[in-house]
Specification:
The protein is of the alpha+beta class. 50% of the residues lie in helices and 8% in strands. It has two domains: 76 residues, Glutaredoxin; 111 residues, Glutathione S-transferase Yfyf (Class Pi), Chain A, domain 2 (Up-down Bundle). The structure holds glutathione (GSH).
Length: 206
C-alpha cells in the first residue's frame, strides 16, 4: 500500500493520486499542508526537506517532486501502459511534464492565488491580468499541439496527460476569461472521464 502525503486541493498532489489510481495501486492519502499544516514538522521534513507536498512513500522508497512521483509510479507499475520505454517517446512525454512544472504552473499561479485564495479587496488585478495573459499564451501552445494528436505524447494516454490535465482542469474551472480551444477541450473531456481522475480532481477549485 502506498502513502501519499498532501491535501487534495494541491495540483501536485492531484497528479500523484491520479497516477497511483491509473496504475492500479491502492494508497492512503494523508491530508497535510495548507490549512492542515504539518509540513514544517520535523517528521515530515525528514521525508521532504523542502516542506512541500506531495510526498510518496512506497515501502522504503520516499519521493518528493510531483513529476518524479508520476514517473516513478509509471516506471514501476505502469510499464507498457503509461510508462514509455522508447527514449524518443519518453522524451515526448517528459517534455510536457517539464513544461507543466516550468511553464504552465508558474504562469497560472498568480491568477489562481489572486482569484481563489485572496479576498477580493486584497487582489492585485494587474498581477492577475498578467498571469491570465501568460497562461492563455501557454494554452495556445497546447491547443496547437493537440490539433494532430489524441494525447500529449501521441495516440496513447500516458504519464504526460496525468501531469498536465490537472492544470487544464483548474484553468477551465476558474472564473477567468478564456479563449475557446476545441482541441484542449476535447482532450480534457476525454482524460477527466477516466475513473482514476475522479478522486484526483476535486470541484470546486479551492
Ligand atoms: N515542484 C514541486 C512543487 C510542490 C508545491 O509547490 N507544493 C505546494 C502545494 S501545490 C505546497 O507544498 N504548498 C505548501 C502547502 O500546501 O502548505 C512539485 O511539483 O511537487
Amino acid at each position: 500500500m502506498l502513502t501519499i502525503w498532501g491535501r487534495i486541493s494541491s495540483i501536485n498532489v492531484q497528479k500523484a493520486v491520479w497516477a497511483a489510481g491509473e496504475v492500479g495501486q491502492s494508497f492512503e492519502r494523508i491530508d497535510l499542508g495548507g490549512t492542515f499544516g504539518g509540513n514544517r514538522e520535523p517528521a515530515y521534513l525528514a521525508k521532504n526537506p523542502n516542506g512541500m507536498i506531495p510526498v510518496l512513500e512506497d515501502g522504503e522508497v520516499c519521493i518528493w517532486e510531483s513529476s518524479s512521483i508520476v514517473r516513478y509510479l509509471a516506471a514501476r507499475y505502469g510499464a507498457g501502459w503509461i510508462w514509455e520505454e522508447d527514449p524518443s517517446r519518453r522524451a515526448d512525454a517528459d517534455r510536457w511534464m517539464d513544461w507543466m512544472i516550468a511553464e504552465l504552473q508558474p504562469a497560472m499561479a498568480p491568477a489562481f492565488l489572486g482569484l481563489i485564495r485572496t479576498p477580493a479587496e486584497k487582489r492585485d488585478m494587474a498581477v492577475i491580468e498578467a498571469s491570465i495573459a501568460k497562461t492563455e499564451a501557454k494554452l495556445d501552445v497546447l491547443e496547437a499541439h493537440l490539433a494532430s494528436r489524441d494525447y500529449l505524447a501521441g495516440s496513447r494516454f500516458g504519464m504526460a496527460d496525468i501531469s498536465v490535465a490537472p492544470g487544464a482542469h483548474r484553468w477551465l474551472n476558474m472564473p477567468v476569461p478564456r479563449a475557446s480551444r476545441p482541441n484542449v477541450q476535447r482532450w480534457y473531456e476525454t482524460v477527466v472521464a477516466r475513473p482514476a481522475a475522479k478522486p484526483a480532481l476535486p470541484l470546486p477549485i479551492t
